[in-house]
Amino acid sequence: MASNDNDASAADGSGHDPVRIGIVSVSDRASRGVYADQGLPALRDWLTRALHNPIAFEPRLIPDEQADISAALIELVAAGCCLVLTTGGTGPALRDVTPEATLAVAHRQMPGFGEQMRQIGLRFVPTAILSRQVAVVRDRCLIINLPGQPKAIAETLEGLRDADGRPLVPGIFAAVPYCLDLIGGPYLETRDAVCKAFRPKGAVRATPA
Ligand SMILES: Nc1ncnc2c1ncn2[C@@H]1O[C@H](COP(=O)(O)OP(=O)(O)OP(=O)(O)O)[C@@H](O)[C@H]1O
Ligand SMILES: Nc1nc2c(c(=O)[nH]1)N[C@H]1C(S)=C(S)[C@@H](COP(=O)(O)O)O[C@H]1N2
């Protein structure tokens, strides 16, 4: 049974729930300034395009250090984030520890996300099989690992469309709003042109006027 007990009206008067979202870029080189971080802008851009909800972003740029990543995730959940998206550090290299850091703070695992993310990735690159990305729930927050390639962020969230814009492989974000409903989070509303969220009929709320 979906529990939408967070029915607070939006601060912007739009009728959409305001949401706080953690965005975490995990990269040794970007955090040292060797190259400019593209992870946080890509996450911010995609979420802003995809959601009607007013978003307060909580950005973090951190090196591939397991303890630092876990600490950031714990802090973001405690700060009231309903969703945290990480990018980077999911591969098999010895410095890649984002999945371990995420599992260390998990209350529950959500294996379906990892399964689907690798299926999507394989439509773009054969090396998607190397990504160990996971998704977990901590308290009322969903935490999802995305790969580090900046282009992989939209690919994974949005999926793949044919030349006419019809979905070929559903992106994982389609399942995120209903997941948040079920764990007591805010009601996310997506822009269908970017990502059509799926909810069972009984869980769909009337559109704000
Ligand atoms: N935050 C980022 N900003 C820009 N490009 C990135 C970022 N993170 C990763 N990339 C690019 O994607 C590639 C694969 O990402 P991965 O997370 O495996 O990084 P990496 O090779 O471990 O290096 P680093 O942790 O120093 O970014 C990188 O080699 C880099 O070209
Ligand atoms: N959609 C998508 N998934 C992808 C990729 C990509 O380009 N697009 N790159 C893959 C590669 S090359 C690797 S090594 C793994 C792990 O990447 P990470 O260490 O940057 O997280 O993600 C994979 N998943």
UniProtKB/TrEMBL annotation:
GO MF terms held by the record: molybdopterin adenylyltransferase activity
Keywords attached to this entry: Molybdenum cofactor biosynthesis, Nucleotidyltransferase, Transferase
Pathway: Cofactor biosynthesis; molybdopterin biosynthesis
Enzyme class: transferase
Organism phylogeny: Bacteria, Pseudomonadati, Pseudomonadota, Betaproteobacteria, Burkholderiales
Pfam family, one: MoCF_biosynth
InterPro entries, per the entry: MoaB/Mog-like_dom_sf, MoaB/Mog_dom, MoCF_biosynth_CS, MPT_Adenylyltrnsfr/MoaC-Rel
Protein name: Molybdopterin adenylyltransferase
Domain MoaB/Mog residues, every copy: 22-167
NCBIfam families: molyb_syn (TIGR00177), PRK09417.1 (NF006932)
Species the sequence originates in: Verminephrobacter aporrectodeae subsp. tuberculatae
Entry's EC annotation: 2.7.7.75
Membrane-spanning parts: none
Catalytic reaction annotation: molybdopterin + ATP + H(+) = adenylyl-molybdopterin + diphosphate
Keyword check for Nucleotidyltransferase: yes
The protein's role, per its UniProt record: Catalyzes the adenylation of molybdopterin as part of the biosynthesis of the molybdenum-cofactor.
